[in-house]
Amino acid sequence: MTGMTGMAEGLGGGRAGLGELLRCAGLELVGEQRRENVLPPRVAWRPMVAGSTEPTVAVSEDRADQVDELNAQWYRLAVEHGILDERGEGDFLIHVPGNGGEPGAGEWTRVRLASEEWDLAGVLGERAGRPEFVTLSLDGEVLLGATAEEYETWLILVEGISARQQAAAEAAVRESPGERGAARFHFWRPLPTAVVEAGLTHPSRKVRHPLVEVQPNITVEQWERILLDESATAQDRWLCSSIAADRGVALTEATYARLCSDPDSEVRAEAARLHGVPARLLETLCSDPEASVRAEACGRGWPRLAEPVRRKLLTDTAAGPRIQALLMHHREHPLSRAVFDGQELGTVAAETCRLEHDLAAHLAVHEDPSMRRALARNPHLLPALVGMLSADADAQVRAEAAVSPVFTEERRATIPLELDPRIQRRALGWVTALHGDFAAVRRLARSPQPAIRRSVARAQHLTGRTVQPGPRRGGASPGCGGPTAHGCRGGTAARRPG
């Protein structure tokens, strides 16, 4: 294989650009961006670029109907092998490379064919007929990708993913280093205890570390053995403690104590991030000789720190822990403009702290739009200032203000927006807090704001009476009905067979 080409300029806008590109291809984004419980995109791309791969279907670039043929063959394979249902419908996962990163960078996007007309082969590539994308069934068992070769484009189908993954993982703990390279990314599925133990005790760190990073079936005893390994280098201890913190691993008090007293300051800083670390150990770390350790312990442990420890951090001679302490302190106590200007607290304070009125009014007209956007996300802001930000000249400031809980849905509908409503964002905390309130959920399900309706859709218990279609801004159809920032490239759009 000649390898994959990079995506064209269409992804230059990050998540917004990706959403627009997928819309132009006739796809509808489903739900919020999230990490799916399937193989990561970086693993899914490996069969697409491997030198030993053979195509399931190859379509020559000399064909006049190359785009239509590629779309038709992708659709046929997707239906026959379960990415789409027997009617050619249903949700699936897609990954498109872009932003100058590696082919598998980023997460999956959950989509569906939005209408009768769609055009993956004509849009999702550097030019029509040169697509680069992978699609995956929701259960993670069937992979179907497209990649452009020198004189033709290949569609590559891989089935039985979980069985392949487990076989590869089991082989990795017994094969030679050269053979092991292809299997080292396959540890993300739960493996039998004996296989996990064999991998964690393997002499090669190239086997041990991928297991530690992604394998869900690691016991507390195994984690403690990994973290307290006296033969490990400081770099390995830091890496493993960082992974344990990211994964929310709970440990014994003796293990927490060992990690909090590690001779390496980076390990101690990661120890402050561990789930369940006792308050007394966090207070010890707040007096650590290293400022970075004190700052981490302050941010993680503030609600559990004694008042004398808090006061000491607020006057710390090092900027890092002092600023962290001020940010935490002023989540409860109003922040003055003098302190804000003198300590360089920035957008984090504008977004998270309680602000005195003169500071909030000053930030509402700040020359930097990013400061005003941060202020618009502040949950403590007075309604009058939120209303002022909802009329801001910057579209993103208005968009942030538009999802504030201070507005009624009628008032929210009057706020002018220019952003693509399909841009995905995190669930709104104030909406998710109302998931148990049926009346509130039903009211918010009709919000003119897509971000609010998406946050409602994340509720675990929804009924048909609750979820009814909300209004669309501008009456835009799911397809690409006009010129966009990226254009609608490609030939004749595909149609689902009747």
Written account of the structure:
By secondary structure, the chain is an alpha+beta fold. The chain has four domains: 9-159 and 488-495, no CATH class; 243-329; 331-407; 427-471, no CATH class. It has 27 helices and nine strands. The chain has a seven-stranded antiparallel beta sheet with strand order 1-4-3-6-7-8-2. A two-stranded antiparallel sheet has the order 5-9. The protein is flat and about 75 Å long. Residues 1-14, 99-104, 176-185 and 469-493 have low confidence and may be disordered.
Give the overall average pLDDT.
80
State the distance separating the first and last CA atoms: 36 Å
Number of strand segments:
9
Order the strands across the largest sheet as they lie in space: 1-4-3-6-7-8-2
β-strand percent reads 5-15%
- Outline the biggest β-sheet: 7 strands, antiparallel
Gross morphology is flat
Low-confidence stretches: 1-14, 99-104, 176-185, 469-493
Protein structure class: alpha+beta
Rg on CA atoms, Å: 26 Å
Number of structural units classed as domains: 4
Helix content: 40-55%
Q: Number of helical segments?
A: 27
